[in-house]
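Minutes, project check-in
Item: structure for the 231-residue chain
Input as provided by the requester:
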Amino acid sequence: MIEFDGASVRTDDGRTLLHPLTLSLSERRISVIGANGSGKSTLLRLVNGLLVPSAGSVAVFGRDTRTEGHAVRRSVGFVFTDPLSQLVMPTGREDVELSLRSRKLTAADRRRQGEAVLRRFGVDHLADRSIYDLSGGERQILALAVVLAVEPRVLVADEPTTLLDLRNDARVRSLIGGLDQQVVFTTHNLDFALESDRTLVIDDGRIVFDGPPPEAVARYREIAAAGIGGT
């Protein structure tokens, strides 16, 4: 359960990035849609404590992100839009094994578990290639493998398919759809949003719709059309 209680975010110069919101997120798949700069990424970063609210609170499984941020981050994995922001080692194998260090495993156990993770996601054949020699889709799947290697209870993904072609978009969507974890993700791909159980529409730092994905997508299309008409 992810709970927002009057959570808002303001910058040091007084700009409001996210207006106060109170809601509970318990569904297995939750999508967040809205224009660039609407507050989607801000909301996601609140979930795992990458960002703490200026006012109000955010709690994950009862742990406050402000006071128990380290514990929250052990439960919540975060995947960035650009996998190169996440893959810090020369190869995917090294990245997965680095992630597994938090489990206090021996080097041999990290290698064994890392190999199993890479096989699970179908990228074991890429394990020893430079991450710079991989396609965008291969990098994104490796980034997901790195985050999921430690089995977080929640996965937060910020536009995980934005940089991908259609084939790799479908691969990543299928992978995310098959996970056991609760997943909260932002996306500009409205078909992807429709694959969730619940959709939040954000506009100008406010949630303007919260409910079934088809209705949410229709509401977002209305907002987008109104914006075009007003220019």
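Outcome recorded: The chain has a mean pLDDT of 92.
No further action items on this chain.
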